[in-house]
């Protein structure tokens, strides 16, 4: 039975605000190296960096009907996440749907399928991460689901989860873990800033991370090329 | 027997003019969702948007000899379309051939293989859609055909057909259907402009396209998350 | 037994200087169409064009420990070349390692795996050619080798070889052949400049390369479309 | 924190028995076209057809340590399901692990990575569905998780779910839905048997499914080729 | 306007008979190295070797409705050829449709998409060449076309053309060229039989094909390894 | 300058004999997890298991001329290894060349490209490991090299190296290391036989390899599902 779930629980505005400008690699590390979507998900233009609340849609191959249902469920600060029930590279999404989403304050689209009108989307500044760029049209015959848990590019995504996307790709954070992950990310950023300065000054990672003893332990040998 | 067909029938200048600035997705829809080349055909730089008359070349894998024969058949407003007789990603085409085509008024290259010198091609403003970017050189040993029908990236292309290419990919329009497709495309553009304004104003596609009754008919249920 | 080879033989500064601004396609042709890395090696931003001396690292899948060992072996003018012992697309390298390499005067990274933090790397102007862009993190558990011969993207690369990389991809030149290849490349550039002018003036490759007799010999027939 | 969950809830013996000899395509249809693993999951030999209870393992790329932990959690009637935390094609599994699993009554392996020793596995009659066949060895350095929910080849799989695998691929059935899906599958099999006989007798699907009126409605036209 | 073309022109029984047992590689060579479908088209079981007349169907992604329309157009000696309007790997075809086709004397299926129930198809001895094996189901919503020219796995195929398929892949022969291609194929087989005997007796291809003078001409040098 | 190296140094008959029946996974481990060709190299039929001395050929894309030169360099116990100078899937090799190689006592073919006539090769019992099966023909225009070092499917292979190939894939062993690798392989086989018996008797790898203390050390926790 096809369903559209309404009034989903969202992270608080305070929590969402902590993800502004967050980087995918940092968040991925901060939550223990999980939640990354497959590397084939690429932004249609660069640089692009967004975060927001997932509204999910599960669609049939070659059929974008449900996207219109999903649009109505979107609020400012949301990101639309689209998964297909069978692999498909068709162009489900173009500038008209982007205009509609933008009018509702949606921050971007994550779609495990194709997108089109990318020149116009780029001009509009509406960011999309997709599996393909393909002008191939879709139909509006088959009903699907909105705001159910989906698997998108290899990751389980629930409506209300937080999505972070940048030039490196896309990562999902569980709503319940959003604050603790943000805490870890903040610590990580601070830590990296300090290390970056030392590295820029010419100090070596071998010394900063104290790697030399362990390298000796595992048997790494230094040999001058002239002695080979 | 290898052949080079000369003096091919081309669309009229008036017809070609109707395709200036045309978008691939629009043309694809306007002609009933057909004619799109495979999604692996990508532009070497963006934005890029061209249309013109197809001059076709069928070449052996790793052999670009026939491109030189094809150049001579090109006129201002043409687009060179290259298909290989076996899959190949070698770099058939670089800045010298581009200089030659540009001198003849050719608008771009569509090649189901590789291309090289793309930094120079980008500086020259000579657009190419290709399957690969690869510096791998080719030889000039095997004769092929010019201006015969070819299959390029999954589409049948005749010499004299119209090619439209932009950031979304490449589409072919049969010469005989060029005016009727242009008519449909014009209508489509007008129609989309009106819809874009309504969507930008916040109206929903669900209402503009009157989708609610049919969604009810196919059984879509709206459920508040709190009631799950 | 894991090894890090130190004090590798490098090309002379004079030799290296001859490769400044060299193009991959030209070098590939100049050395007899060899040495090209696979076409999946793409720059993270464009345009990008570097040359330098290869420092090589062989790393386990999903483990970037050895990169820190490799950093210490790098000098100004070097390029770090990373190969994995099993195919892997993880993000071995990000902005911290780039900061460290930049501090040592390294010109760029060639990695047959994934890279992350590409927005920051782009801002820093630190060029990378990689198989993938992927935020997936790596660990530091398994020791590998530095400055041994590696196979990277299908090519054998020795420490001390010359790497040239641009928008077309990456090519390796053996250190022992570096001067003779540079000679051939210089001749080739001169030769192409002359041809480019003739082609720009409208002369045909068919005539410049005197192809017409041989085309006749192999049986190419010219047929007017009206006579088909 | 790495975890191994013990004493997972399993389907009853009666429920499992209903899946003996079940076909993947039938089960997939019976549960509303969901639960199919990606088509790259192929059996190492054919024919092969198994069903059983999922024991799940989440492993690091190139590291098969956790498989040994998972073995201990297996009982007769189980199927080991292995997912990697990053894409990997290494050969995690060979004849020694198969010997161990077979000794515990395990029916087969589903692994979103590589497998090796397939000649011996074939002789042993131990079926495996994998993404790759690759002799590349793995290490035992990184701890993972056993019997947590995993995403394997694009599907969410919980420990205790039912796995059905045959020459067509692999499908997962939620433990809670196992009986109702078995009911639907039984009906489907009965229904197909009747249809198969009519089709074998020469009756057409067009008539059996009463498709002609609807084809007329959507405008399908029959034209004799001589009238084109 | 969707169309089903009836009463297509077929090759004569005499012509078809000449293709019994023909091999794909031989036919491909006999017609000048053209007509081969892409190498991703693989048989579901081996050995398999068929030839027959193409009945073509063009179907929407994920929709197999038109296959039922196509079945009615099939006669003994036909082969069903299915192309999709957008790339798709779903399982359009299973044992019920195979039962129906077999009842009509159809010799096999060529489908640029997925197939399922392959264990049963193998038992039935109904051969299929496909892009994928995938249990993913399809719907019956969208009308398509039967017996129009299609592009299947990169080749243009007309209804009434001859299809030859074996363990190497699939090749298409134009109906109008069927007799002349059969003539060339017969000559080729005779020629190869003679050569096979000489090669089996230890004679070298270098001598049989008189390659030594030309190898000398292009500069091949023989060097004893001891003299390197 | 194209070259064919003659009278290459081969391993002794005694050394070669030690590799009879050797398994790829065992040899790969025995030499420290190196030397494996890419996982896309698959046997055309199974089971297949060979070992022998590499004769190498480097060929142009789509051109099999050099294979005839290579045949003459082959002796009983050799295996022909073919690499292309640019990626290519054409069918370089069929039953005529196999007949010729078989007449010379060659044990099989390793080719980083396509092969054809596989039904006949299977009947002949001539094993081939290839990247593709494709009937696409090749020409004989471009000279290459025989018995020079090549890179085949990602591995460096010298003429005279030992090749081992089975259902798992292909591995290369340096000629100089052949005896020491055989020693390690023998030890490994003995070791595995003992372990196989213990595992078959139901003993766990956790105990045989004494993994429990280290798992505790890295923090693995066992939790009963009822306590979650």
| Helix and strand element order of chain A | EHHEEHEHEHEEEEEEHHHE
Which percent range fits the helix content of chain A? 25-40%
Structural class of chain A: alpha/beta
Largest interface: A-B, 41 and 40 residues
| Shape descriptor of chain A | elongated
User: What is the total tally of β strands of chain A?
Assistant: 12
Question: How confident overall, as mean pLDDT of chain A?
Answer: 97
Poorly predicted ranges of chain A: none
Oligomer: homohexamer
By DSSP (H or I, 4+ residues per run), the number of helices of chain A equals 8
| CA distance, first residue to last residue of chain A | 71 Å
Can you lay out the helices and strands and say which pair or pack?
6 copies of one chain form a homohexamer.
Chain A: E1 3-6, H1 13-17, H2 24-30, E2 42-43, E3 50-59, H3 65-72, E4 78-84, H4 95-103, E5 108-115, H5 118-124, E6 128-133, E7 145-146, E8 150-152, E9 155-157, E10 162-166, E11 169-173, H6 178-200, H7 205-208, H8 212-217, E12 221-224
Parallel strand pairs in A: 3-4, 4-5, 5-6
Antiparallel strand pairs in A: 2-6, 3-7, 3-10, 8-9, 10-11
Helix pairs in contact in A: 2-6
